[in-house]
Amino acid sequence: QLQLVESGGGLVQAGGSLRLSCVASGRSFSTSTMAWFRQAPGKERDFVAAISTSGGNTYYTDSVKGRFTTSRDNAKNTVNLQMNSLKPEDTAIYYCAGTLSSNNVYDTKAYMYWGQGTQVTVSS
């Protein structure tokens, strides 16, 4: 079981950067695929990025490729999302998620562990 706590959200101007962090408590972190999802007002929760248990494989939705980078430190039970060149359309609540399954990392249904979310607002 994992408990996840995100931090690092805030208000930034377009073109700026933010770094989100997610700290996990529990013994399953190093064996969990970790991901970031986001949900804008009135919209569904969408996949942003995921990282395999070792960190050797990463996955991104097309709209953030080249701008966002996810990483993890299994010794510190932490996963990060570095967000550069932010755009107003990146505004959303960002959620950290974890799963013991490596199947279909893009689907919210694959994840059983969720953080409470952190707000990211990008002004134009």
Classification by helices and strands: mainly beta
Proportion of residues in extended strands: over 45%
Which range best describes the helical content: under 10%, 10-25%, 25-40%, 40-55%, 55-70% or over 70%? under 10%
Instruction: Please count the helical segments.
Output: 0
Topology order in helix (H) and strand (E) letters: EEEEEEEEEEE
The global form is globular
| Total beta-strand segments | 11
Q: Using only CA atoms, what is the Rg?
A: 13 Å
Arithmetic mean pLDDT: 96
Summarize the structure in short.
This protein is an all-beta fold and 124 residues long. It is 0% helix and 50% strand.
Question: Any key phrases for this structure?
Answer:
single chain, mainly beta, seven-stranded mixed sheet, four-stranded antiparallel sheet, 11 strands
Question: Can you describe this structure?
Answer:
The chain has 124 residues and is an all-beta fold. It is built from no helices and 11 strands. The strands form 2 sheets. Strands 2, 4, 5, 6, 9, 10 and 11 form a 7-stranded mixed beta sheet that branches. The mean pLDDT is 96.
Sequence-ordered SSE layout with sheet pairings:
Layout: E1 3-7, E2 10-13, E3 18-25, E4 33-39, E5 45-51, E6 58-60, E7 68-73, E8 78-83, E9 92-99, E10 113-114, E11 118-123
